[in-house]
Fold these 3 entries.
Entry 1:
Amino acid sequence: GTPQKYDPTFKGPIYDRGCTDVICCVLLVLAIVGYVVVGVVAWTHGDPRKVIYPTDSRGQFCGQQGTPNEYAKGRRPPRLSPVQICVSECPDRYLTYLKAHSSRAPAELGYYRQFCLPEFKDLQKPPIEVLKDKECPALLIPSVPLARRCFPAIRAKKGVIMVGNETTYEDGHGQRRNVTELLEGAKKANVVLETRQLAMKIFEDYTVSWYWIIIGLVIAMVASLIFIVLLRFLAGIMVWVMIVMVILVLGYGIFHCYVEYAKLKGEAGSDVSLKDLGFQTDLRVYLHLRQTWLAFMIILCIVEVVIILLLIFLRKRILIAIALIKEASRAVGHVMMSLLFPLCTFFLLCLCIAYWASTAVFLSTSNEAVYKVFNETACQFSGQTCKPETFNTSNVTKLCPDAQCLFAFYGGETSYHKYLIVLQFFNVFMFFWLANFVIALGQVTLAGAFASYYWAFKKPDDMPAFPLFSAFGRALRYHTGSLAFGSLILAIVQVIRVTLEYLDHRLKAADNKFAKFLLSCLKCCFWCLEKFIKFLNRNAYIMIAIYGTNFCTSAKNAFFLLMRNIIRVAVLDKVTDFLFFLGKLLIVGSVGILAFFFFTHRIKLVQDTAPPLNYYWVPILTVIVGSYLIAHGFFSVYGMCVDTLFLCFCEDLERNDGSPERPYYMSPELSEILLKGNLEPSK
């Protein structure tokens, strides 16, 4: 591309600008209107109760207020019969209807009655007729409630599979069967049951530790804020302190892992391999294995060595990057509201996520109840759809006396139901488009504010009164179309990646190696393409904020400007990214270590204050993840500031030469170290 030429009228972000990419702006508005229509249609037809509450064979909800089955909180699984009924509690014993009826005990028959159809009243009716008419199940099995459904209470005791306390059961037809026959049908249910138990324990840990988690996140926020403020005044010292602290924190992690590894030597069971142990829901088990601590120690050693080697090779470039960070600190100091702006972006992203999730749920529950013919003898109508209202008067009952019209699943054959998958696809696409638009709006706003700082010849006197709000207003008024264009391109690539992941999931069971290889190549290519588009969009938004040009022109100018300064990109931009990553690592590591010592009762001053937990890693991981998100939010402002100043610096070097007639706009401190660092343009 052609380098920028000297322009005496250029004073930073152009205020006299026009609307760009209007067509994309119109498309975005139409898409949002269509998205609202889809949401209204989904909310009109959808019913989230279908996800939460089970149904009986008539399609009526179990346990839902205002329904005939309001007080029924479970249903018998349709394993022994296609008939499904709502019950107030799950069976707790083995019992056949023949045994309950023959015992003549009112209590036994009364207990069995609650598992029969609601209209079954005649307790004196012959058992054969009752079972033939499917008014009561032939057999009750001890069951446990899971997600408002009843599943066989299968457990293992000393390697023996049992249901309740029995290893065999009577099937209701006079035969004894082994409970292992129930195992296959309930295997997945037991996996879900174990997952549910794990989830309940995790939930319990959150209930007793949530306020300590909040305190940990507040500490992370305060630490991030203090770090940012100190960067404003002590950028050079803080960067070197950060580097040393990261090395020390990793070093302590290596030392702690070695101590735990040596402590377990000779203890019973500590030499079991992770492969032999397999997956355990109680993750504390892994901490009693030497191999676990050895793996942690090796990983930390690799990270430590990589960071030290990078610091050795980049030691001269780090001085230059520190100068850029100092300048970014001064820019952030003059636009302090920029530190709070990520909260606005976060709020808008939460709205996008909430709308997408609720629309997805309502769309997935928009189907209608479908009823099918069930029978035990041969019948030509078996499996066909039917209507319960007219079934008893139809020819089906005449030709197949034992046939029943029962609820099968939720579906539909209308045009709306046929295109539900298209509406779900549109929902996903719009989520990506709007989320990327919100992120783009945040980036172009911060870029405009920081560009106002750089191109102010007398800082901060020549800056506008409210640079952040001015940049936000310009972005919405003039460049909504450009932001929509850039986010649309990124959304298309992301939707393609989601589709490829879905195809990869469906092809896991297939044995077509070529298809898997081709799919892996496509996934890799589109991953790289997404990263490149994100990088290009970010720099295009900076050019939009400065010059007010359309997206394509801004992307082209940004790309060629970076290519003309490719060495500077590698030297400055990426080194500062590395330093910011170390800063996030320092905050997360420090808060994580503090949380580890607190929740494991290793701080004597507050040893009795820490709550008792099932899994102490639950609050620790929550604090670590939350701390990273908080630190990332603060450092993302600095990252955008550095990228903006870097592009402005490259433009400044092309437009000006530092002479009295064409002086640089960069600060004297920045120009001194950058130009001495052999980064001045070739004459």
Entry 2:
Amino acid sequence: GKTGKSVLCCGFPLSIFFIVINEFCERFSYYGMKAVLTLYFTRFLRWEDNFATAIYHTFVALCYLTPILGAIIADSWLGKFKTILYLSIVYAIGQAVLSVGSISELTGGSANNLAPNIALSMIGLILIALGTGGIKPCVSAFGGDQFEENQERQRGTFFSLFYLSINAGSLLSTLITPTLRASECGIHTKQECYPLAFGVPAILMAIALVVFIIGSKMYKKVKPQGNIMLEVSKCVGFAIKNRFRHRSKQFPKREHWLDWASDKYDKRLIAQTKMVLRVLFLYIPLPMFWAVFDQQGSRWTLQATAMNGDFGFQIQPDQMQIVNPILIVIMVPVVDSLVYPLIKKCKLNFTPLKKMTVGMFLGSLAFVAAALVQVQIDKTYPVFPAAGQAQIKLINVGESPATVQFQPQLDSVYIAPKKETGYMTFEASELQSLNITSALLNKTEPLDLQEGERYTLVFKRDITNISSNLIWDNITSKPENGKSLVRFINNLPNTVNITMGDTDFGELDPLSVTNYSVVPKPDGSYTINASMPQTACTTVSKKFGYGSVYTISLDYCIDNELSITYFEDIAPNTVHMAWQIPQYFLLTCAEVLFSVTGLEFSYSQAPSNMKSVLQAGWLLTVAVGNIIVLIVAGASTIDKQWAEYVLFAALLLLVCIIFAIMASFYTYIDPNEIEAQFDKEEKKDQDDKEKEAEVDSRM
């Protein structure tokens, strides 16, 4: 094939810089899109949490299955350069299709017909999975191809740079795209800006493609060598078939089942395949680690949506994943230059397989930490009525205490002035009416509650009678996206006009209640204004907090000063997002011990020409891990999220123990020695043949 002229720049082939920039843009594009994906499913496509989790992990699994395809195409057919080129085009189209699919105006801005959005999004994601997966095994190897044999040191530096550009890309995009998503945009309706959050990654993918093409004259393009993966598979297949054919007693046994392939394949390939299979056997338990690891983008992001992200500035729930790349950038050098040398000093032999076992154990701990955080969140999480039930809460806005008796003969409650009960749950069919008694007056209020709904009864005792108002709350879930809602009760003697900040609640008669309205910034405070024909009163609200719902009664107006009472319908997100940091820290330590070590170990245990087979096996474990989550999320009847976390922690701990046992039986080898042995034998055979030829020629 044509090879480009190698232009050098600071001792590196110049083409390398194009490859590193290309990788940065591609990773930015991928991680940026992936960061907002879960919330796109739950908030824009309105999918239920479990379904969104399942589709997210299906997508990730696809992204890790397609590399095997990419490697085969590159090695057997197109070569790395063309594979990267064509699949990058597919990838860029996929990103563009996804961002078009997230435009809410596709169907004329109606939220009920999402079919075109779903169709385009799925097509986009499939193209992205083909693209990102297909080029994944090619890019780093293509970079390695650019170096000459004598540039070992530079090649090493390149791989470090390459890894750095991956993390820099994911770090920046995880910071930027959720911010873009949280911004509002739209022609008809203002809502979260997914087209922008997906559009920026699409543009970066286009840039990655252009950068890659610009460098094309300089690249060293190695001809496709044929795919070793197919060779190995054929060899294994033949061995099994041959072994099956000779299963009767009369045939002598062979030392290893793979030796049955020696009738057709050479000894060296068989020896190399044996080394690979020993490593692949150890891979069997690994998917469980990835099942846990990849939930950062699904379950943990959904967990963060019920948390308080106020760090002095507001952090989006999908931005918490950024903790992982930040910690990786810090931890990898620290562990390599500090932790491992210390362990060595203590005379401990911390072998790669031991590191991986500890990594799995830390991954299991991370999920225990996630479960503990979930328990804290559940404590403040509202309970909504189940099937057949309704909930009612009573607010006494008057000056005198009252007792309310639920009919027929259920409970009675005492309510002090300016106080409320929490939501009380009843079987909707059983509750017929309630009776309010306050200082010798009493009133019966008939109730006809619909099941699954929440109601509020507002009442007060005046001098001569009890007035009351039953309101349907029309709210059956905690406000999504961390929003906050507020509504007002007019407890003043005359009709008022209410505004809060820029929100106008309109005119309100005595003892009436407004609809809920969204608080624009839940961490800000607003001026509440109640105006009557003659006079106006104001007061400044408190900070409501993310995810909260409040009812506010306007009680008095004295000297233009408004006096109000807050009734909390749904508590704000009180558990701080910072509590997710321990689980992210544990999981990142696990990743450093497990993932970084795992690949190095694999490569050290097999001949260099088998690296692609091992990489394929490694990526396969990630894909299978994501399929495990998909099955658990789909099949689990666990309704408590913390229990699902504990289940995963327990499964990983179990697998960790199995892996430790398997690892203790593994003996480390040096593939180079075995290779050298073969070289020596081949040379000896060669010499023997030459000697024979000499003898023959003399005769």
Entry 3:
Amino acid sequence: LMERKPHAKINRKEVILAKLRKSCSCTPQKLKNFVMDFFPVLRWLPKYQCKEYIWGDVMSGLVIGIILVPQAIAYSLLAGLKPIYSLYTSFFANIIYFLMGTSRHVSVGIFSLISLMVGQVVDRELLLAGFDLNDDAPPVLGDGSLQNDSLSNTTAFNLTIAGINAECGKECYAIGIATALTFVAGVYQVLMGIFRLGFVSMYLSESVLDGFATGASLTILTAQVKYLIGIKIPRSQGHGMLVITWFNIFRNISQANLCDVITSAICIVVLVTAKELGDRYKHKLKFPLPTELVVIVVATLVSHYGKLNEVYASSVSGAIPTGFIPPKVPEFNLMLRVAVDALPLAIVSFVFTVSLSEMFAKKYAYTIRANQEMFAVGFCNIIPSFFHSFATSAALAKTLVKTSTGCQTQISGVISAMVVLLVLLFLAPLFYSLQKCVLACIIIVSLRGALRKFRDVPARFHVNKVDTLVWVITMSASALVSTEIGLLVGIVFSMLCIVVRTQRPRTALLGQIQDTSFYEDDLEYENLSTVPKVKIFRFEAPLYYANRNYFLKSLYRLTNLDPNLEAARRKKYEKQEKQHLKKGNHKTANGLGIGETTLQLVPKQIDFQALVVDCSSISFLDTTGVNTLKEILKDYKNLNISVLLACCNPSVIDSLKRGGYFGRDFGCMQEMLFYSIHNAVLFAKDQK
């Protein structure tokens, strides 16, 4: 046996106390490190190489800012809020992540999936409060200023909802719900950072995330169809929203607005063509074509001068105020209503941000701190919630554009925020005549990447059938039930798949590779030689309570011997033989002589005298696993068959020692445990 290194016993109490003393101590250097860790910008900004980085950061910042404006206005439809709130969200998120983020490249701001999740909660609460979800009411005329916008809310209600007794219209209540939801999600993320719960993201596999994104994309697409063709149907709520919405669309298809249909067709053709050309010639373009901005500007001018709203009743964005609304603390009573909804929102927002940060950090050879990312995203939600903003996350499409246009640091995020600020202060009213169908086209075309996942299903299925099943289940539940339920179903189902895989793992009898000391699966490889009088059994999973029975059944099936049944059969024949001997009959119950009876005790002669269990794939044993090995050791010993263990890792050996597998003094350990299969086989051959 190999000698194990002695391990010093760790006094956990002393370790915990030492960590507490270190954490609770406060020195100037420690305080400085804490502040610089909490605001990473203080570390990298003084080292900023202006001549080398500034051009790429400014260019990428301008491009992202130009893309952000039309996307912010468009995604307000998903969130069920006015466009001004999306612009606020884009502005504050970029500034805060610049101060607190550790990734140099990710673009944090509004994200379609997060906007959808916010919009579903907002719609539900508006419906419960008695508001009409129809957002296609005629716009109120005004110059777009904050004062006129606040006066335009002529439909106000005296509400006593969740303890609030105030005059609050639909828009006021909607943003109140969104900010309360965002604040609670941010608090969850900060608490997860404090308690270092970032490991939660490990349970969201790539298949679950892809399936969730694809299912949510189908929901987003469905929600935009009514704007696309200009019909007025209520916004569906609850489970099965996708099916109900499509039913309402086909039932009201005759009311489609011809102007919106033509506009949508033109915009989609232009956007898709520009995207395809951009993808094909991206190596020749220094920066992506600002197609969305061009489409919005042209569509706004055509709508304004063609009077599409007045002549053809085409739905338009309406007045977008300029400036900033005074900050307001999110309502605590509303937080209680959305506390449960904020949890999946917080997890999804964090997971997408961290996964993108890690992906680009690996690509550009630097490191991020996942826990600090949790704090950064959390405060990107908490602080903006006081300024009428809603939840944010990193977005893949904008991050890819950012890196392709030369981004070096988060200075580019500040430049993007300045572009949004310019729109907020001066340009927002110019989008008054922008048709909603144009915004819907921008959203739908932005879903190309997620919807293309359907083309990858055959390749995914070829690589791994179980992961494909996880993707299909998650996608179907996210689309047909709801996004939150879909995410939960995906996580639970993927974990069940892992459990099932360990419950029914691969098992095999091994044969020897000729003229070598190596052994492999007899069913998978040709020209393997069987070892006389020795069976070698491999179990490719941890041995624990859930797969104990499968382990025993597989062992008995492959060795063609159940020791319990064999022992019971022998006892039965021995009992019958004794009864006949007492009667003085020299023939047994079978009519055979005593000598012949001995042969009948074993109808199938056992063709092995040693069983070698290959433990190389057994990563751990629980109490049931140890007891199972002790059980087969005892049962086979009764049949004069020795059980030898090979290739056990140290943790398995320790479990066996603690469970008393080798006896009290471990005296027989060297005859029961071997560090290779070949050593065990040689030992078995030497046995009489």
